[in-house]
Amino acid sequence: MGELEEFRKETEAWLDANCPPSMRWSETPGTNPALNDDLAWGGRKATYPNPEVKQWLDLMAEKGWTAPTWPQAYGGGGLSKAEAKILSEEMRRLRIKPPLVGFGLTMIGPLLLEYGSEEQKLRFLNEVCRGEIRWCQGYSEPDAGSDLASLRTRAILDGDEWVVNGQKVWTSYADLSDWMFCLVRTDPDVRKQEGITFLLFDMESPGVSVKPIELISGYSPFCETFLEDVRVPKDQVVGGVNNGWTMAKALLGHERSMISEAFHEREESNQLVDLADKYIGRDVHGRLADATIRDRIAQLTMNKACLDLTLRRSKEAAKQGQQPGPESSIFKYYATELNKDRTALALNVLGPQALGWEGDGFDAAELQATRSWLRARGNSIEGGTSEVQLNIIAKRVLGLPD
Ligand SMILES: Cc1cc2nc3c(=O)[nH]c(=O)nc-3n(C[C@H](O)[C@H](O)[C@H](O)COP(=O)(O)OP(=O)(O)OC[C@H]3O[C@@H](n4cnc5c(N)ncnc54)[C@H](O)[C@@H]3O)c2cc1C
User: Fold this and answer.
1) Which fold has domain 135-242?
2) Which atom of ligand 1 is nearest to the CA of 378?
């Protein structure tokens, strides 16, 4: 037996023997809990009402499998790309939930691996892998969203510390996070992209205050973050002073890949067929009774298969360790637009049962369908809107004139 086959056998046996029952997705399509149910985001403020979530996190962290390809010195598993692929295939096959999620693993971690100092890597990556630190992203400001380089949060050097003043907005989960990675203006007198620095700071630093933004749904996934004379040690800059725009773009590449990956190889087309079976039924030929819905499901299934295959091909073509470039905008755009189509189609299938928000008369899956449809619109805004992705593709992938 080859080494990789041996690795697959051992991995499967270990996962099957060690993964607690509640850390496996349900077998029944359409009944998976919401994505953030029973998933560990880690950090100082994390609570674990289900102890198996923490047990699974600790077991996987011990093996380095919360970040399988990161070096072992930084808390990762040191797996090759081929081994990591096997691990992820076996987890999917056994319907095992990820032991840890969050911006540490998908955004700031990969950036630090490439641009962080050795000290930053040893400190922060180990904490990320063990689920001891939760990060939030301080990019957007009230007047700097798509035009991010216009940001005005100011940092001025005072001895060995930066003093930061300004405001961030739409900071997802700032109230639950321990540290922020943040873009600040360190030189106002140069071209706007050239005067930006990428800083890390503890959310418990004096001068940081966070105000959750309540949405019409009643939830508060976002916050406004106010920074008033926040003192940040000089060595918490990543990638060099006034080099923040390069860091910002590199991190957005990781963020966009992460958003498109989230839709990769999910089994949603089957779930749409199950839904259509339940709400529309079959005709005498055994086909879904509504021809338009049938066509739309078929088209969506083909588009999803094209996305999956293209993503897989591009991952395999990427050289070992290669970071995502502007091409990540193609996947981010396509995956999030496709997700909007899918969730809209699910509402069409549900008909009047898609009109529920809460209360009697609607089951949990119906209520979830309505919320997923609304949330899908956020996917095409976060990490840069679809229009902005099209601009990037036009300029930086296709080389069209500005
Ligand atoms: C779910 C979610 C989570 C988020 N989490 C975070 C977070 O954790 N941290 C953070 O910093 N930010 C976060 N954001 C903010 C997000 O990055 C911004 O909302 C996004 O970049 C758009 O900025 P804006 O809201 O200011 O819209 P604007 O930039 O004002 O855009 C308004 C509209 O104009 C269009 N537009 C703007 N410029 C152009 C152009 N040049 N060409 C064509 N069309 C254009 C846009 O596409 C959009 O439709 C989050 C947003 C969402 C929805």
Assistant:
1) Butyryl-CoA Dehydrogenase, subunit A; domain 2 (2.40.110)
2) 53
- For ligand 1, whether the C-beta of 224 sits within 6 Å is no
Domain 3-101 CATH (choose: 1.10.540, 2.40.50, 3.40.50, 1.10.10): 1.10.540
**E strands, 122-258, in order:** 135-138, 154-158, 161-168, 179-185, 196-202, 208-213, 222-233, 237-238
Distance 140 CA to ligand 1 centre (A): 8
Catalytic residue IDs: 255
State if residue 387 touches ligand 1 by the CB under 6 angstroms criterion. yes
* 140 Cβ closer than 6 Å to some ligand 1 atom: yes
pLDDT in tens, 46-105: 999 999 999 999 999 999 999 999 999 999 999 999 999 999 999 999 999 999 999 999
318 lines ligand 1 (CB under 6 A): no
Task: Report the predicted TM-score, pTM, of the whole model to 2 decimal places.
Answer: 0.93
Contacts of 161 (CB under 8 A, 6+ apart): 231, 232, 233, 234
Asked if the 262-397 domain carries CATH number 1.20.140.10, the reply is: yes
Instruction: Parse the chain into domains and list their residue ranges.
Output: 3-101, 135-242, 262-397
What confidence tens digit (pLDDT) does each residue in 342-390 have? 999 999 999 999 999 888 899 988 998 998 899 899 999 999 999 999 9
The closest-lying atom of ligand 1 relative to the alpha carbon of residue 143 is 26
User: Alpha-carbon distance 208 to 186, whole Å?
Assistant: 19
